[in-house]
Structure formats: C-alpha cells, structure tokens
Design a protein that fits this description.
mainly alpha; 8 helices
C-alpha cells in the first residue's frame, strides 16, 4: 500500500510541475519566436477559433486521449480517462499563468525575446521533470508517445520524436489552410525541441535520487 505521506508530497510536486509547464507555454508565446512542438496545435487552434489558449489546450489534449484509445484499443487502461481531469487543470493553469506573463513587456527587442524563450525552455523542462517524478498520471501528449511505443515496440524516445514532429506538421497545415501563413513555429520551436530535453537531463542527473527519497518516504 502506498504511504499516505507519499501522496501528500507527490500531489503538490505534480501540480507545481504542471503550472511551471504552463508558464513555459505562455513565455514561449510571449517571446514570439515560436512555441514548443507539443504546444503548436493548441496555439494555432486558438488563433483560428479566437478562443483562449487554455480552452484550446484542454480540447486538443482531449483529442490526444481519444487517440490513445484508437492506438491501444483493448489495451487502453480506462483509469487513464482521468487525463481529462488533468487536461482541464492544465488548461486552467495555462489561463492563469497567461495572466501573469501578460504583466511582462510585450514585443520587446530580440534579446529580450530570446530571454523569454530560454526561460520558457527552463520552465518546461523543470515542470516536466517534476510532474514525471511525482509518478501520478502522464499528460495526454506523453501518453500518446507511450502508446505508440507499446504498439510498435520502439523506445519512447523515438516515438516521442515521431509524435512531436507530426504535431508540428499538422500545425503547419492548419496554419496555412486557415490563417494563410505559418504561425507559432519559428527558430524557438526547433531550439525547444532539443533544449527541453537537455533541461530535463540536467535535473535528472542532480535531483532524481534526492527527489525520489522525498516523494516516496
């Protein structure tokens, strides 16, 4: 049986990780240098529909849950439908952190845009490290990569790359079809594709064992 003290510690760390990720999402939007690959579809859908980024994130993540069911079929674990709850919380966090990042200067010079982008990568990588370490429930996009790994037998690192760049391709198609140009995908998208992983690796090497001892007493 899981130690109750473990849950008392894991839930705040999990939610903190989600919130840091959403701050990273909004900082990438504010930078104007391109959002991270997994956030491109919600961002483009938000531009097309005129709805908030938080709401569009929740809706797109719900589609990812349906995609897991299609990929896994009978192997889908139905407790993963709780990802709908996590998607809703994540969408609300996107809106909340967006209100905070809106206080920062918009349309600054390129150096400040670059700083926003680097902070975005740091927030995303740190947030992912924390929420994964808490080991409660995968985010829908990561769960799709895991489902592809399970179905194809390829490592998740490979299927994650497949999925991320498929998402970028879909975003480009949607943006060209509905907006007449490519939106949200620039040099920052490419940098984030590698930088977030490097940030996660940085924390893994330094905090994995201490954090595990704290979360699982």
């Amino acid at each position: 049986m899981t130690n109750p003290a473990s849950w008392v510690r894991r839930i705040p760390v999990y939610l903190s990780g989600l919130f840091l990720m959403t701050a990273g999402v909004n900082l990438s939007v504010l930078s104007g240098l391109g959002v991270s690959p997994i956030d491109t579809i919600p961002y483009v859908v938000s531009l097309i529909s005129g709805k908030s980024l938080g709401l569009c994130t929740t809706l797109v993540f719900s589609v990812y849950i349906a995609l897991q069911i299609v990929i896994l079929r009978r192997d889908f674990q139905w407790h993963n439908l709780f990802q709908l709850v996590i998607s809703t919380i994540f969408g609300w966090f996107v809106t909340l952190s967006g209100q905070l990042t809106a206080l920062l200067p918009a349309e600054p010079g390129y150096l400040v845009q670059l700083l926003y982008m680097l902070c975005s990568i740091a927030f995303l990588g740190t947030g992912i490290f924390l929420y994964v370490a808490a080991d409660i429930l995968n985010m829908p996009a990561d769960a799709v990569a895991l489902a592809l790994s399970f179905r194809t037998g390829r490592p998740m690192s490979t299927t994650k790359i497949w999925f991320d760049w498929t998402v970028v391709a879909v975003s480009v198609a949607l943006s060209l079809g509905f907006l007449g140009g490519v939106n949200g995908i620039r040099e920052g998208t490419l940098v984030a594709a590698f930088g977030v992983g490097l940030c996660i690796r940085f924390w893994e090497r330094r905090l994995t064992e201490p954090l595990r001892r704290f979360l699982f007493p």
